[in-house]
Amino acid sequence: MGLLDGKVALITGGARGMGEAHVRLFLAEGARVVFGDVLEEEGKALAAETGAVYVRHDVTRPEEWEAAVGAAVEAYGRLDVLVNNAGILKFRRIADMSLEDFDQVIGVNLRGTWLGIKSVIEPMKAAGRGSIVNISSIEGYVGAEGLSAYSASKFGVRGVTKSAARELAKFKIRVNSVHPGAINTSMVMDPELVGEVDAEAFVKSMVIKRFAKPVEVSHVVAFLASDRASYCTGSEFTVDGGLLTGAGY
């Protein structure tokens, strides 16, 4: 018996990194998975390897949300789970950041999450229940130099999650957020970010002194997607190795 047997899940940003880990674990736990990404080559390769359904999906565009949700319902007749995982990070200090870069980060990370929630309400109502898991960040609790747009977007995801949880509870749709810390993905290895961070001091600040594997986040996401989390909604789950311990948030 898998944790997600019988569930149909849509995962955004699923072609690589943490999203790919979500896709693989959800499949291993018995879910039927549709995943989207703008990385078409990587997406098609992962679909061919795993049997998951890939759709090209720009999360900032309502029509592509309609297509992605439609693909899941057409393929499997229902939709039970949404993982709003797609996200981007641009390291720029406020003085140096263009409005276009700021808008792009907010567009993918916050607008994309809001559009996702909006897009799955009707199919989840039709299914009789649902679970939405929004991927925020520890930067949704504390600001970081050079990450004003990213932090703003991830703080915003927290607020959208809580509002949606209140609005959708009457339809038996749960909405929670997950806040990863130092995860070993390509996004955190952005050359500009790496060049600005004192890696040795950063590791020393950790309670668990290592970067996490992406699947360590996926296990929390899968739990929230499952019926075992039936009494969890509007809640925030950190997967940060204790990084925020004593941070005063």
TrEMBL record:
UniProt keyword Cytoplasm, yes or no: no
Organism: Nonomuraea salmonea
Coiled-coil regions, chain positions: none
Name this protein carries in UniProt: Glucose 1-dehydrogenase
Family statement drawn from the similarity comment of this UniProt entry: Belongs to the short-chain dehydrogenases/reductases (SDR) family.
Keyword entries, A-Z: Oxidoreductase
Pfam families: adh_short_C2
Any one Gene Ontology molecular-function term assigned to this protein's record: glucose 1-dehydrogenase [NAD(P)+] activity
Enzyme class: oxidoreductase
EC number: 1.1.1.47
